[in-house]
Write a structure and sequence with these properties.
single chain, about 100 residues, alpha+beta, four-stranded antiparallel sheet, 2 helices, about 20% strand
């Protein structure tokens, strides 16, 4: 079943009492990322439910992360741009 972008939701649920968080998703991208985490870290991430359109995962609340936005200075942005260009140019030369 093909879902619209609007229907590809992800819901994270946890409370102050319990040590675990539950993540429900219909987004295939999120599923692929979490499936890789389940394989790499089975002691932390667990897939606890699967249907044909969604999956439910369980993990410690500490695995749920909040980050502040990254702010780059003009110099940092320029340096990152130059690194990316160098990598891109290096890749073009190896193909020839």
């Amino acid at each position: 079943m093909k879902l619209s972008r609007y229907e590809r939701e992800t819901i994270i649920n946890f409370n102050a009492e319990e040590p675990t968080a539950t993540l429900y998703t219909r987004d295939p991208t999120v599923m692929r990322k979490l499936d890789q985490l389940v394989i790499s870290f089975p002691e932390v991430y667990k897939c606890i439910g699967v249907t044909d359109i969604d999956k439910t995962y369980e993990m410690p609340k500490s695995a749920v992360n909040y980050r502040k936005p990254r702010r780059l200075s003009a110099e940092q942005r320029q340096a990152a741009s130059e690194r990316a260009n160098n990598l891109h140019n290096k890749g073009d030369k190896s193909v020839s």
